Amino acid sequence: MERETIRGNMRAERHRRGLTIQEVATLLGCSPQIVSRWELGLTTPSPKFLLMMAKIYQLPPDYLLEIGIVKTHKLKHKRTKE
């Protein structure tokens, strides 16, 4: 897993939904400091927390990791713009 990708996607989705770090931490059942460390790229969330975040943000887990079909879709989209 690439920390920068996870970090950027987590923060972007939290902001997109107007949630605070505290609110996300409460929904996940962890401390705000843990969420902050994930968003700063200091640590990486476990698969359990990645799945929980995907449910909270109503996204496929692939999106947070930018793997599989999501990455393929972005690549196709980029090519059509060129």
Radius of gyration: 13 Å
DSSP summary, beta strand count: 0
Instruction: Indicate the CATH topology.
Output: 434 Repressor (Amino-terminal Domain)
What is the terminal separation in angstroms?
28 Å
Brief digest:
The chain has helices at 3-16, 21-28, 32-40, 47-56, 61-65, 68-81. The protein is mainly alpha-helical and 82 residues long. It has one domain (3-81): 434 Repressor (Amino-terminal Domain).
Question: Which SSEs are present, and which pair or pack?
Answer:
Blueprint: H1 3-16, H2 21-28, H3 32-40, H4 47-56, H5 61-65, H6 68-81
Describe the structure.
The chain is mainly alpha-helical and 82 residues long. It has one domain (3-81): 434 Repressor (Amino-terminal Domain). The protein is built from six helices and no strands. It has helices spanning 3-16, 21-28, 32-40, 47-56, 61-65, 68-81. Helix 2 (21-28) packs across helix 3 (32-40). The longest helix has 14 residues, at 3-16. It is globular. 12% of the residues are buried.
List keywords for this structure.
6 helices, 82 residues, 0% strand, single chain, globular, 434 Repressor (Amino-terminal Domain), mainly alpha
